[in-house]
Amino acid sequence: MERMTMTVTKCCEAFRANREPMSPNKFWNNVQRGEYEGWVIPREGTKKRQATIYVTGFIEYMHRRGYEVVRPFETLTGPNAKRPAGAGTPTSQPG
After folding, report:
1. Cβ–Cβ contacts within 10 Å for residue 66, how many?
2. Could you state, in chain order, the average pLDDT of each consecutive group of 10 residues for the chain (95 residues)?
3. pTM value?
């Protein structure tokens, strides 16, 4: 089974969804310090900074830090996307 990954942008969004301030610059500084070792794998030989970021690693990291994880990547994408109450296609009003 293939492990789910996410982009740096989505990872930063996931941090912020869990009330952890994060920007791409802060993310890369943390990667350079080895903060996310094992679940963020920087890619070598690319013009732009890129990484393989494993979703399960993010979740485990947040749990170790005491967070109850909110996962925006599961609720906002995919064929079975869960939408907040009242979101989605507007309903027609009688009248």
Report:
1. 6
2. 89 93 97 96 92 95 90 50 39 44
3. 0.71
